[in-house]
Amino acid sequence: MTEPRSYRRGRPPRVQRYLLWPARNLWRSLTSMRTALALLFLLAIAAVPGAMLPQRNLNAQKTTQYIADNGTVGDVLDRLQMFDVFSSIWFTAIYALLFISLVGCLTPRMIEHARSLRARPVAAPRNLARLPRHEVRDTDGTPEQVATTIRKGLRGWRTSVREVDRPTSEGGSVTTMEVSAEKGYLRELGNLIFHFALLALLVAIAAGKMFGYEGTRILVADGQEGLCNTSTAVYDSFRAGNLVDGTNLNEFCIQVEAFQASYLETGQPDMYTATLKYQSGNEIRGSQWNERALKVNDPLRVAGDRVYLLGHGFAPTFTVTFPDGRTRTQTVPFQPDELQTMMSSGAARFDTPAGLYPNEDERRTKQIAVEGLFAPTAVFAGGLMTSAWPVPDNPAVAIDVYQGDTGLDTGRPQNVYSLNVDMINQGRLLKLERVNLLAGQDTRLADGTTVRFDGYQRWVSLQVSHDPAQKWVLVSSIAMLAGLLVSLLIKRRRVWARITPQAGLVTPRCTVEIAGLARTDHAGWGENFIEMVDILIPDASPRKPPPQRPAAHIDGDSGS
After folding, report:
1. In the predicted model, what is the mean pLDDT of the chain?
2. Max Cα separation, the chain?
3. How far apart are CA 147 and CA 499, in angstroms?
4. Does the structure show a pLDDT above 90 at 210?
């Protein structure tokens, strides 16, 4: 069987030229430290839109409003997934490439570092006088004795001793003892710990997103409405990880008993505090409740989950009395439109009592809806209501009262803060009254139905967050900081000592040539090098070193 023509001509096969070599070069470029740093910087830049623009998973209503307000720009940003940054394709791609780059970059470095730890220190260069730090001393003793003394002085260093035959100027040779010592391997270890901790941090964050979940719920702070973390249906909005189906949530129950808000003189909020009662584990089956004050950035940790206080608002209470005397009462959360004054807007829908209108079509046309504004401290000017202060000193509402089909029978989800505009435009909802009401006041419709404003309650917005990798994120962050400190504070240094016996003397005497090299701080020994030489060779007399050529760059890893 003949070889391919490309081999006969001395050329590699096409598969190697057009597939293997480009793949190898691509892998080398991807796993280089320069690429890893570039991807890390790119990931930081990619996260900026997630902080500047509203995100759909955090506030879908605000995101929708932002897109509507910005028209074409909003639509383009939405197509680019700027409102779902951290779950977007391009952000995930950068994240995955950074992960692969770090693995491919750090694994060879870890192997190389393990080999260097097992290897002997590098042999002394041939010309020690060319190193940045160099001293020559004469001392009494044999080369073996002097080498033993130097090794004892280098406690904590990795040392090795070699016997080397070196030529003399007379054409002979002399046996010298050479001591090699290295220190500062923890610097590279700290560098590896930092990068592997960064890798672990990325893995922990990804695992938290896959196995975690977040749910938000608005609760009226009256001690009556509660939340039990048993299914996703109890939340107003719920975002689950890719591996969470919502059937195995950590069980606990919460009730909001009261809410307090303090403000500065300028009307800016100072502190929000909600009083909670909660149960978890076996307590759910009993009547015992635990109480805790929940504040901003001070979450409740229960059953492995965290409960955060996100915001608050007012929930006006309306009572509708129908012509037969039966009543319907609702306390509905209104959305704050002006945080400075807590001017809020919202809507409420009331179905008719059973049997009041036997005809189903007539019943649907007699439903009541209320839409309008709530002012904690109402101020009226020419019939228009505004709010002067976020504290409820003079609560009032400015509402439109509608009668007709409110959409309660359709089964379709509706905006809790506003009525369906299409139903109003189609004439299915008719506006009958527009009034301003203080607490306790009411308005009467033509058929005898009355709508009364009873007062208000506070509501709070809570977020339940579950992140099983949170502890690992903390551990990885601490390891990153520790590795960074070690890599910055520890210096990598090498010392060589060449011990040459002096011939023709009755008492053994040696010439000791010591040189030092600091690999990372431009030989930043200062006066410490001379002090170290004095400690290593006590009772030695200094010798003036011979003339030497200008110092040249010497690779610290080279043995010559």
Report:
1. 85
2. 131
3. 7
4. no
Side-chain-facing half-sphere of 66: CA atoms under 13 Å? 16
Instruction: Give the pLDDT of residue 344.
Output: 94
Burial of 121 (0-12, 13-18, 19+ CB in 10 A): buried
Report the C-alpha gap between 443 and 448 in whole angstroms: 10
The Cα 256–Cα 273 span in angstroms is: 11
User: Which residues, at least 6 apart from 317, have a Cβ–Cβ distance to it below 8 Å?
Assistant: 329, 330, 331, 453, 454, 455, 456, 457
* Mean per-residue pLDDT, 295-304: 90
CA 364 centroid distance within chain: 51
Q: What angle do CA 364, 367, 371 make, to 5 degrees?
A: 135
Give the 3-state secondary structure percentages of the chain, helix then strand then coil, rounded to 5: 30, 35, 35
Q: Decide: 456 and 374 in contact? Cβ < 8 Å.
A: yes
Amino acid type, 141: G
Distances (CA, A) of 11 to 6, 8, 18, 19, 26: 5, 8, 12, 15, 22
pTM of the complete model? 0.68
